[in-house]
Amino acid sequence: MATGVCVLLSVWVGVCMALNLDTSFPVLKMGGDGSLFGLSVALHQDPKTDNYLLLIGAPRDKAEPNVPANRTGGVYSCQITADQSDCSRMKLIDPDVNLSEDVIEDMWLGVSVASQGRPGGRILTCGHRFVKLYGAFKLRHMIGRCYLPGNDLQYDDTDVHWQNIVQPCNHLGDVSSEVMCNMGISAFITQTEVIVGSPGSFEWQGNVHVSWMNPDVLFDTRTSSFPNMQRRNIYIGYSLTQARHLLSHEDETIVTGAPKDSKDDARGSVLLVVKRSDKLMTQQTLRGEQTGSYFGNAVATADLNNDGWNDLLVGAPFYFHRQQEVGGAVYVYMNAGGWFDSQPSVVLRGPARSAFGMSVTAAGDLNQDGFQDFAVGAPFHETGSVMIWSGSSEGVSTEPSQVIKGHAVSPGFRTFGYSLSGGLDVDGNKYPDLLVGSLDDTIALLRTRPVVHINKTLKVSPDIVDPNSCDFCIQVEVCFSYIFSAGEKSDRDNITVHLTVSADVTSLKSRLHFQDNGQSVYSGYLSLPKKHCQPLRVGLLSPIRNKVEPLVFSLNVSLFEKLPKKRNAVQDLQRLPVLSQTPQPIRTQIHIQKACGIDNRCHSNLQMKAQFTDENRNPFPMKKGRQVFYYSGSINRLFLEVNISNTPSPGQPAEDAHNAVLNISIPPLLVYSGVRTKGDVHELVECFVNDTELLCDLGNPFKSNQEVQVLIIFQPSEISLHAKEIQSVLQLSTLSEQSDLFPQSVSMLVEYSLQASLTLINPPGSASFSGHVIGESAMKKTEDVGSLLLFTLQVHIKGRPLGRQANMQVEFDWPIEVSSGKWLLYLTEIQMNGTSEPHCSLPSNIINPLGLMVSKEVEEKKKKRRSLEEEVKGNMEEQRHTPLPALHLQGHKKSYTLDCVHGANCVTFVCPLLNMNNSATLTVRARLWNSTMIEDYSDARSVLVRARATLKLQTNKHTINMDSHSTEIEVNIYPDLGQQMDSSAPLWIIVVSVLAGVLLLALICLLLWKCGFFRRASARELYQPKTQKAQMKSQPSDNDRLDEEL
């Protein structure tokens, strides 16, 4: 199918066309409750009086007085007055009806109603449920009946040729003929023909009956209809109309709907039919789109594009599309010069469950634009709606020009738009009106307002204003003229225009004010045709900062409408016109005089260079053509240096740059702190933060040959480990003319320099060795190895935690053995605090490789030992500064230094600080290998052992770096004090001491011999005992004393 656009009522708004069907002053008529007053409607003009009437069908109305029935239906003619009950019933049924043959009860008289128009002025109305009783068994044959009262709405004996219309459906015969034809469900009348539809003919095949009346010869009547085509249940004749210029300019074409045509799955069809003698011949069949949509429920014709050919409108009220929330459709077939494409030109669709397309009618040229319009009813959308579509040279728009809702016309409507009739001007203003029916026993006549075209002009002088001498020197004049669409004007017209003149509409803050009210906007009223123009005076506000932008004036116009309060009479809509289209403002402009040459146009030449610098105004270093920022926590601020000039260049003058502004986007990683200015500026550059932008006013104007340096101060407080780049976009702007002002980007890479420290907060102090050598196999516990060495390292990061971007790690160069391969410092444990792991996990050949047991006693009493070690350390310091009594005799003792370069073999291992926040501690426990010291360093005065710990960064982020931090761990080792005294005397002292002792002993022996000491003693002296007991007590070592304390 050709492209059809789904149009929902929620978006149906008036476009730039006149919405001239009036809803403020409808003419309402009401019938009896439950009578279905308004099921069918027609506009009618009495040819005798030229008065217009509203013809209303009420098929469920009670019977006329004296008619032997309870409910027959009826037809009313209503005057166009404000009285809602000003309607009279037409007397159509003969009170002397033969009830033995005719059943008029519930015949639904008024199911259709049509007006012949001038000059005939007759009315055609039918009741399709009229029944004829047939045969001995009184078979009920529902053939229907139509009535044709004269132009005075009564039976006219002088018009018997028309009054006694032939009832085409014969009740004689069987059901396969037309004994159940339901004639009159649709009806149409011309000056020479009566056309009625009978969808029940030939077992619901349907039929159309045409009765031609010879206008010159009485009782010369010819009839034509469809034959029995053996097509049951398709309902031909359900709707019908007739018009010329469909298939031929000369012949008339009948259009009839068959909404249940089952040839293509009951999609319905529309037949275009011509008359051939006594038969109707189908020339073209248009098929429906969807099964059960009732395509052909309503048909209408109108020349929508004014090409001289009538176009075709077909309603399908039960079409639906669940996903699109669509209910009902109207298919528009544009005439292609006497034939129709099988596919519609446009498909209009309504909202869900609205029955959009239940009624369709040609409405005439509502706005008098030269193109015919049409109306579509959607009676089940809310309180009912009627949509108006305007024709045009391009055909039909997909959106209506006006939407009229039932509740806006009268609160009593629930199914507004069930029936429609249009095309007649009932109030004489030369604009056709629209009659709308419903199932609510209420109808509404909607009249059209005149459409007026307003022409407007706006003049402002002078063209150039001198700001130094302007005291309301600007003159503004607005003028109007008008014309109606119908073409007539009168001096009695009273069109009031509401005008609004806005001065300097393009500026945020107006530079102008009107003399009348002191404001930048003037509003007033002008009555046409009494007055056509309105002069105004405007002045400049001082001081004027913006001299470049023109002074723009705007004029908006609307019609001033004062609705009458009187509602008990039909209002004259001639005094309530509407504009032909939505008014569009008109503009004009003048300029302020400037020192920019004879053309009063300023051509600037602003140029800009920008770079990032440090606090000392030194640009950051370049790397591969880009600046690089090595960030560390010690950097508090940086500058964005912007150099701006307005100097001439070849082919480009440098006149004043008015309202020169520098727009700088603030990088997300930086915080704006302030601005400094250097250069030939008369005033300081002012900058204002606007969300994420910095707006700097460079001057008004930024004069020719002027240069300025702007230093934007930023704080790098938002820079984190995620940062990769700092970028800012700079944009110069001016009100002067310059076409090469493009955004300029300045950026630099960020390399994060991490600030961290590694501190030895608890050094191991001094240690001693003594005792005797113990082999590895004899050791069971770590305390068998030797003295305990305990020290603590602290790692601290300044700034934010690393998170998952990187990890810190401590690398140890540990002297695990001496160069001879003997153990030196034996690691037993490394504890960590402030990380996700409590211990440093190392291979078994580094931590306690012999698998010695750590003494529980020692572990439980660490605090006491630590205090005792501090005491020992104090004693050692005291011994270090106080010479030992015998040390001056031990000059051959040596001092040793053992590190990874000299005398020791080191092992390198790493302790990762996983998930560390800002600080962590490492506690290292080791043992001095006592046996190695006794065996290899018994001649040592002291042994200095050095280890190294290095803090390193582990990351795959190239923008994060850190300088490695190392610290040395020193352990001073001394022999035990007792051992030092016994073995530290030099050999020559021993030899001299021995010789001196021998000589002293010889001298003593000589003296004793001279004194008689060696004489033999007496027996008494020999047996007189003299004893002397010598006792010697050895002093305990430090370790023995430590064990006694514990």
Automatic annotation (TrEMBL):
Topology relative to the membrane, per the entry? Single-pass type I membrane protein
Q: What is an example of a Pfam family matching this protein?
A: Integrin_A_Ig_1
Any idea where this protein resides?
Membrane
Q: Which UniProt keywords apply?
A: Cell adhesion, Glycoprotein, Integrin, Membrane, Receptor, Repeat, Signal, Transmembrane, Transmembrane helix
Give residue ranges of the FG-GAP repeats: 20-87, 282-342, 343-398, 402-463
A GO cellular component entry from the record: external side of plasma membrane
The primary site where this protein sits is membrane
Keyword Repeat assigned to the entry: answer is yes
Which regions form coiled coils? none
> Which residue stretches belong to region Disordered?
861-881, 1025-1046
GO BP, sorted A to Z? cell adhesion mediated by integrin; cell-cell adhesion; cell-matrix adhesion; integrin-mediated signaling pathway; leukocyte migration
Q: Name all Integrin alpha second immunoglobulin-like domain ranges.
A: 596-740
Q: Where is the Integrin alpha first immunoglubulin-like domain?
A: 448-594
Molecular function (GO) terms listed?
integrin binding
Q: Which family does it belong to?
A: Belongs to the integrin alpha chain family.
Q: What name goes with this protein?
A: Integrin alpha-3-like
- Organism encoding this protein: Sparus aurata
